[in-house]
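Figure 3 (text version): structure tokens given as input.
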């Protein structure tokens, strides 16, 4: 019975080591525009290890932003990150945990949404024990603390074969060029 937890721990530890050994990304110069993301965990019914990520290229979910990757368990009430502004933003959240002696339980989401340079967004992540949930709201200054809901585009997840930086989702032409990379993916 201890084989499953050990196998699960090996997979999680191996994944974290792979992410830590990723090739440095060549990013375009910072033009001064930025988008602020406030990550908030709403619930964790799986009682699982969670992680949120921001990708540097929105076309095919390539590259992890150093500012955006954080374990949910280490998040304060609100984890605020500032990311170089662009037309879209792609984020993911995942939870992985043990489910007694029955194996593992996990869930994963990856979404892209439109952003405005200089704007602030609240990204609420969590799971209800069965599925991961992600909600994004554009915050405005003043009394509107809840913000305006943002339409999320669900992305089809793929597993990279060689490069641990990605791609982590199928490329979508609409998102080509929305990138912090020096040479954006999807642009011909």
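Below: residues designed for each position.
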């Amino acid at each position: 019975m201890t084989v499953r937890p050990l196998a699960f721990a090996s997979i999680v530890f191996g994944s974290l080591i792979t992410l830590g050994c990723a090739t440095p990304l060549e990013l375009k110069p910072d033009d001064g525009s930025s988008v602020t993301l406030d990550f908030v965990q709403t619930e964790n019914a799986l009682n699982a290890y969670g992680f949120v990520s921001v990708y540097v290229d929105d076309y095919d979910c390539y590259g992890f932003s150093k500012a955006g990757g954080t374990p949910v368990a280490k998040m304060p009430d609100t984890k605020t990150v500032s990311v170089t502004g662009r037309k879209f933003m792609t984020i993911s959240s995942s939870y992985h945990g043990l489910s007694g002696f029955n194996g593992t339980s996990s869930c994963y989401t990856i979404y892209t949404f439109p952003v405005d340079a200089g704007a602030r967004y609240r990204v609420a992540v969590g799971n209800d024990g069965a599925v991961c949930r992600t909600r994004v709201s554009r915050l405005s200054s003043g009394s509107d603390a809840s913000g305006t809901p943002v339409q999320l585009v669900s992305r089809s997840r793929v597993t990279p074969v060689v490069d641990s930086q990605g791609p982590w989702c199928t490329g979508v032409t609409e998102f080509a060029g929305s990138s912090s990379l020096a040479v954006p993916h999807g642009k011909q």
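Residues 3-20 form the longest helix (18 residues).
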